[in-house]
From TrEMBL:
Ranges in coiled-coil conformation: 62-89
Similarity comment: family membership: Belongs to the AMY1 family.
Protein name: c-Myc-binding protein
A GO cellular-component term linked to this record: nucleus
Localization annotation: Nucleus
Length: 103
């Protein structure tokens, strides 16, 4: 039975694409790290995921970052409101320049 093979030019294009994107180097480095591991992990796929940056802890980090972002947005809103209030109070005590320019 004959197997279909993609033309070499498409294979070569894909290989160059992976090389240019750094995929080949990343995979090679992770596989070398796995090879050099003195005690091989029970699950090689988890090892690859962890070392390629697709670790299971990432969603926790993302969740923590979302929480921090939310807190910082609230703080920013409070500070913006405080700034607006202080500017309003300051305008009560400082008259506008007569020519209309802001100093």
């Amino acid at each position: 039975m004959a197997h279909y093979r993609a033309p070499e030019s498409k294979r070569e294009q894909f290989r160059r694409y992976l090389e240019k994107a750094g995929v080949i180097d990343s995979l090679t480095n992770v596989l070398v790290a796995l090879y050099e591991e003195p005690e091989k992990p029970n699950n090689a796929l988890d090892f690859l995921k962890d070392h390629l940056g697709v670790a299971g802890a990432e969603p926790m980090d993302t969740e923590a970052l979302h929480l921090e972002l939310s807190e910082l947005q609230q703080k920013c809103d409070l500070l913006t409101e405080e700034n607006r209030d202080l500017r309003h109070r300051l305008q009560q005590y400082e008259p506008e320049p007569e020519d209309g320019t802001v100093e």
